[in-house]
Write a structure and sequence with these properties.
The structure is a single chain. The protein has 224 residues and is mainly α. Helices cover 47% and strands 6% of the residues.
Length: 224
Amino acid sequence: MGAHLLADLLEDALPQTQCTKCGYPDCRGYAEAMAEAGQKPNRCPPGGIEGIIRLSKILQLKTESTTLSIDPECGAERPRPVALIDPKACIGCTLCIQACPVDAIVGASKQMHTVLNDWCTGCDLCVAPCPVDCISMVNVTENHTGWEAWSSKEAELARKRYHAHSTRLKREERDQILRVANKARSKLEELDSDLAQSETDRAEIERKRQIIAAALARAKTQTI
């Protein structure tokens, strides 16, 4: 089996919380590390012990009692929580919105934010950036942990939301690059006009032209 196909199978067996507790940027990154670099299948706290068993079967590894434990470096298996924002303390800084990998937090700048419970994967990533500590993680699955607290259907929906989130960020980044490039082109046209008229400042104008031309070249490579 090729590494790419193996990574696909492993990714399908991960809960798609995109929490990064495994030490990788997302569930796909962890799947590829297991498929290509031999990373162990015990680094996913949201998947829990059942997750280790599922991943080990795909990797054709034996699962003895001594191997069925989450790497403490990554955290611990626990009931699934969702984020709760204290409306009285929220200052509308949007840092939690930026941190959420599945766009489960909505709100505008300087206005109170709200968590969409059905979308929240319990990843904890919104907690640390909050400057006023107004976010708490609330258990919503009682004593159920790992895959007993999460379903394959929920995982697939979370993966789709994560992909949509990633696509949106790339689009916004591209749009910003294009806006800056358009402003640079306008400035370059102004400098070209000044260059044709000015003799005393020709060297400084030419220096600025070269800087802007280089910036435009970089923008072009970033949007290809």
